[in-house]
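Lab meeting prep.
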Amino acid sequence: MPVKLTKEGVIIAERIVDGVAINPLNGPMDLCEHHRRPSDEVMLWYKRPYIVTDEFGWQVMCLDMKRSDRASIYELTQNFDEAINLASQPIPIDRSRGNPYRWEQNPYGDQ
């Protein structure tokens, strides 16, 4: 398994491309209120985009604290290079205004 060392900790993933974790094995827990998250998880993943694959394509995700209990889905794309490009960009502080990316809505429709 590829490993990426950061000043916040170690990321373990199926692949690491241009510094972006693909299907991280130690990614942020899903369905966990942020105040209950381990501090080391928050330090490692806060505003660090990563990519998860599923039957719909490549999901660019980020633990940005915009959702109350999970990482945000910033983009769902069928194109791997586009996913890597988006995940390599800095995360906007406020996704709702002046966003240069198409990260306005969750592709699954839930907020």
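Slide two material, second protein:
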Amino acid sequence: MAGDSEWNPPGWPGPGTKMRFLDRNGYDYQLAEARELFDTKATYTVKNVEVGSWHHSFEFAEFPGQRFNGVMFEECEPPARKGPCTSAWEATRT
């Protein structure tokens, strides 16, 4: 089912989910490539997710055909709750 943008594994962000780049985690080369494309203050829309036995990756609508290590991103919460992309870690620090 890889490449099928309609497939959404249970418990994982699906197509249309807004994500934020964390600017941390992943292998050094993955992080370096992502830093050239992503901004930590912007949100990105999931086009597809691939979940393996020991990894997961996202394809974003803004960068079709490219996959990025999922550990470098977090799901944005709806603005009505805490504001766009407030991570659980940041919420504990306020």
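Talking points for slide two:
The first strand starts at residue 18 and ends at 21.
The chain has two helices and five strands.
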